[in-house]
Predict the structure.
Amino acid sequence: MQVSAIFALLLIIPLSIYGQSPLNGGQIIVNNQGLSNGALNANGGAAAILSSAPQPKDQIGKRRRKRQAVLVHQPQIHSTLRELFDNPNDKTDVDMHILFREHQPFPDHYSTFDNFSQYLSALNTHREPTNAERRQKLINDYGAEILDEFWLTNSMFVKMPLEHARRYAQEQEQHYILLHPGHEQGGVWGLQDLGIARQAVSSDWLYNAQASLNNLQGCIAVIDSGVRKTHAVFNSPNRINLTLDCVYGGSSCADASTNPTQYDVDDDCLSHGTTVASIISANSNAGDSLHGMSPACINSYKVFQTLHSAGTSTCTSYLNSTWVVTAIQAALANGDRIINLSLYTNCLNQSLCDVTHAVDAAHDLGAIIFVASGNDATQGQQKAPAHSSKVLTIGAVDLLNLTHTATYQASGPTSDGRIKPDLQAPSGFYTAYNGCGGNGNWCPTNNNGSNNGFWTVDGTSISTPIVTGAAYLLKKQLISYGAANPEPGLIYSWILSLTNGPQVTNTTGAGLLSLGWRQCTFMWQTFYANQYIVNNFAIDSASDSYGSKRMDVAIWWPEDSKQTVRHQVSLKLTSPQGILLAQTNAPQQVWQKITYMQPGNTRLPSGTYQIRIDVGTLQPTANYIRVFLTACTRPE
Ligand SMILES: *[C@@H]1O[C@H](CO)[C@@H](O)[C@H](O)[C@H]1NC(C)=O
Ligand SMILES: *[C@@H]1O[C@H](CO)[C@@H](O)[C@H](O)[C@H]1NC(C)=O
Ligand SMILES: *[C@@H]1O[C@H](CO)[C@@H](O)[C@H](O)[C@H]1NC(C)=O
Ligand SMILES: *[C@@H]1O[C@H](CO)[C@@H](O)[C@H](O)[C@H]1NC(C)=O
Ligand SMILES: *[C@@H]1O[C@H](CO)[C@@H](O)[C@H](O)[C@H]1NC(C)=O
Ligand SMILES: *[C@@H]1O[C@H](CO)[C@@H](O)[C@H](O)[C@H]1NC(C)=O
Ligand SMILES: *[C@@H]1O[C@H](CO)[C@@H](O)[C@H](O)[C@H]1NC(C)=O
Ligand SMILES: *[C@@H]1O[C@H](CO)[C@@H](O)[C@H](O)[C@H]1NC(C)=O
């Protein structure tokens, strides 16, 4: 009877998760060659929406699943802390970040509240009785000092004598304990303008075509070393909205009164945040070749403590992961839903990293997050938060040789076998910085920099904002196609399909970002599944004047980073004649991608292709998964 379940049978699912209908998608022909002055969905026939309603012809399968035993939670302890515990003579105090288990998960998604601050106060009210007890217990029974609390991860940052911490670690009630700051690295070389990088990912046509579309409501959060907001590329038109200091600015990152002499929102010596922000959205004041990927507004959250080194042209920076969690919280509270993180902490096991839990939770609240893969050339050592399964992790290719993975790029797989980076973008180009130092060096003391400074930089930190800026354009575009409030997964899926592939590897992920789908047929779907779903993808070669010869299909689904067992989901593409064209069943993944190239360099024949998604083993506690599907035809 398994097979007989092939009809349009909707799964029974709780709608409250994102407050959206279970089926949400459409198919569109983008036929935009030579378009110079219109939006893609303008009335001039540039694009035609074929079906904005859920597609009735598709088939969905369903099966009942046996209830599985509930997992027993053991306290998990970060290795750094475990080593301290193992030293019996150590009597010092220890800093711990305790992530608590949620005994009764808060049931409502934030979209059911009037605004985010209302959601937050309801969440805190829900947790407070339990957390009040935890606080009491920590203080009275363990001599702890509570240094900080985070709603995003339901966690407390505490200091306590090591001997008491050892005892506390035996408590079944707590979930995770962590501690460990990390450092950011940087490197310098190269000669090409940012414009060459934009050319490499073919994004300018979209940037130009969107001139008449409204900008998104939220800003992009740049969680980095601050930003030089006076730089020419950020003013008239203005790009920087908020500049905050999460090192000295308290839980809102804005409380300048706590530490007035040290509160400093500027990227005063590292130049890193200024560069990232300029790649995302520099204006054209320094010429078209130096404008950013998007016209987004930027909210800057400084999380690197930066210090000039007197007498030398160096800048030392220090990162404490709790500042990053603070920054992500503040970004969500400020309404930012696209977040760029080009930093890492030295935490390897994704179950045990505070920043990883924070980005996972931020995704669940609607944030699209991009993280740099890292510049330490490691393999299979992805650190927090690059190893998170709810972010896209970006690797780097040399701008001068787009098939060459940068030698410094950290590659996967993650410790649990997932492919990372998820995709790559160019690095090594000329873009804005804070104008200090000269000769590509950091700022020396008393060098006040310049508002017209540019330099050439390299690193996965530089490739990440390329994708962050692209995500802004894509989100804007999806909204114009009728996807009212695209969830992060839909953007992730589309980005993964917009890569040059064709092979998915541990080094390249899905390959180099490539937005060159100017004329194509594009479809997207969002649904819940626990057995299989077959989607129809109709292609009409006669209306495709661009001559599409390849088809890219991607699915992405959200999984908790702390789960060690992965959902197994496979993807198949079948021709209009029912012939299997391509399939993938890569294990341990949270996405799958197929690239199908029509043989003989000819165009894809017309007809209805079928995209089938089979859900195999699910994680023990899951009854279904949410799947984001995108498919796109392209000329090459
Ligand atoms: C990560 O930590 C979890 C929880 O302590 C443990 O079960 C898992 O084996 C660890 N993974 C690796 C790769 O060490
Ligand atoms: C959020 O909504 C509540 C209740 O509707 C209102 O009192 C409050 O002013 C709103 N806050 C913001 C920041 O809009
Ligand atoms: C821009 O900054 C103002 C405060 O100056 C803030 O109220 C507003 O939310 C910010 N806008 C966005 C889109 O983040
Ligand atoms: C990390 O930041 C927190 C909050 O500012 C602070 O209490 C703690 O001492 C810092 N830890 C380290 C190792 O810097
Ligand atoms: C953006 O992300 C990249 C990669 O993680 C990082 O190197 C860069 O510093 C980030 N930029 C900002 C402004 O956060
Ligand atoms: C580009 O990189 C590829 C892959 O590493 C290499 O095989 C090729 O020789 C490079 N091409 C040039 C012109 O350096
Ligand atoms: C330049 O930097 C020095 C040292 O940080 C500072 O005292 C001075 O006020 C700055 N000058 C200007 C014009 O900003
Ligand atoms: C990625 O690396 C793992 C571990 O070396 C290997 O088992 C897997 O086959 C690799 N995946 C791909 C797509 O090459």
Observations:
- The chain is about 20% helix and 25% strand.
- The longest strand covers residues 519-529.
